[in-house]
Amino acid sequence: LIQMLRSAKKRDVLQLLRRAPEEARPFLVEAAVATQSVASLAALSDFLDFSQEPKSLLEKFLYAAAFSPRPSGELLQLVLDKLDGKQLAPEIWETGIVAVGSLVGKLCQQKLCGLQQVVERGVETILKGLRGAQEEPRVVISLLALGNARLPETIPTLLEHAEDGPTAVTTAATSALQRFPAPHISSKVKQVMRRIFHQKRKSYDKTCRLAAAEILLDNHPLPMDVINILLATTEMDTEVATFLLLKVQNSLR
């Protein structure tokens, strides 16, 4: 089907989508996303109406885009156009923002961050959602999207939320920071992770502290960090202490 769609014209793909039985449409949408031809993306743009289509079909489209192994800039552009300036159901907005983060991250992995306009628009869409979020779940989703994107310029934003946010927000931000490669885990990042793990400013959730410890241990740890983490395990519950001890032992091996 994908091979057939690659050679099809826009009107043929659009006709196929419109005439297909309702139960077959999610499958055809997924195939059209996988094709990523100019014609198939243009047909999807005309076919998908984010204000009217069933949520299940829109989510299928967004999931297919997010999990695309080698997305194009045109696919990111299509997702952004469909999310832009519309009153969307909360779950569609959330899936869409996470998909945007995934697409930006994969484009940059392919060394296609040079598609400056569309990539910058993707990042700005996520950051705009984060700045405008008034409810905690929206903040968390935006941070997950930044974790998917893994752009170094967003690290200061993630650090701010990791250290100062409520529990769900700090956990999402530290989890996002775990996804960055070692060259981006700077001394500033490590300083914040130390404050979180040792609870210098306030109490943090166990999951958040574990993520902070892992960032310290997985990215060229200083001997003093290892010693301080081991000393801290004497005051932690058995499960967490055992996990951190095994982590140190694996590093030594």
TrEMBL record:
PANTHER family: MICROSOMAL TRIGLYCERIDE TRANSFER PROTEIN, LARGE SUBUNIT (PTHR13024), MICROSOMAL TRIGLYCERIDE TRANSFER PROTEIN-LIKE (PTHR13024:SF2). SUPFAM superfamilies: Lipovitellin-phosvitin complex, superhelical domain. GO terms for cellular component: basolateral plasma membrane; endoplasmic reticulum; Golgi apparatus. InterPro entries: Lipovitellin_superhlx_dom, MTTP, Vitellogenin_N. GO terms for biological process: lipoprotein metabolic process. GO terms for molecular function: phospholipid transporter activity. Residues 1-243 form the Vitellogenin domain. This is MTP protein.
